[in-house]
Amino acid sequence: MTETWAAVLLALASALSQALGTVMRHRTMDRAQGRLESKFGVLTSRYWWTGMTISLAGFAFQGLALAFGSLILVQTISVTSLIFALPLGAWMNRRRVSKTELFWGHVLTACVMVMVLYGRPTGGETHPPLWEWALACVGGVVVVAILLRIGRRRHTSGGRAVLFGVAGGTAFAYVALFTKGVTQRWHAGGAWEVATTGEVYALVVAAVAALTLQQMSFEAGAVHQAVPASTVTTPVISMVLGVVVLGERFAVDGLHLLALGATLAVMAAATVALARKEVGPGGAGGGAAGSGDSAGDGEPRSASSTPTNR
């Protein structure tokens, strides 16, 4: 088995684990709603902790995938967690997957296959120079700061939720970037190599920032506005970081890159559509009117919440 196929399988395992873990945790919260003595009461549920453990296993699978494959490859495949969440959420909530969800699920699957099989992203530098890391970090801080500044000036909660969601998605992209650096260091020299280099400390800072920004986006407005913004931003920013910092490339050029760009746009639209479905009314995250299935679908919408972690 080549390293690329190992990365693909591990990335799929990560997406599946993240989807199952998140659906289990939110299903636990739904079932316990109104019966919790405090907002931390859900922590007493073994079912919730099982979901958290599975989600952490998904993060471990992602780290292993990044050890074998490019950042672009792994982060592109990571959006399939939305696809896995559809049948899992339907099964746990005893409902059928709607026609609209099936349609966008097929579209997203096709887009991921095109990006991976047609684009064939390849790996770049294992350890870029320090100045490239520094510039990338400064650029990320500036982008997040601008988004937060603009978001705080927004009068509408929806605008703030979207902007904070984009900021959180940007931070999660840096989490993936630093995770790849840590896995490469571990592979090269073990724990000592990891502890004596900067990627692991940058990873901790990025993870704290990402989770904080994600929570800010949830508190700023409706979850069905924040989650799609973050879910779409993470793979897009990851691609930019893979190209700029790690020197990763697609194995096509010219007009073929335009085709990949169009595919990426469709993939973003499908991701938004599925993310909105998964956090609509009746779900753990709540939602708003107007984000339901198209007329004539005649099937209940999802009650589970979508995975928000990459």
TrEMBL record:
Key words of the record: Membrane, Transmembrane, Transmembrane helix
Compositionally biased spans, kind Gly residues: 281-295
Ranges annotated as spanning the membrane: 59-90, 102-118, 130-150, 162-179, 225-245, 257-275
Domain of life from the UniProt record: Bacteria
Disordered: region residues: 281-310
NCBIfam families, per the entry: DMT_1
Name of the protein: DMT family transporter
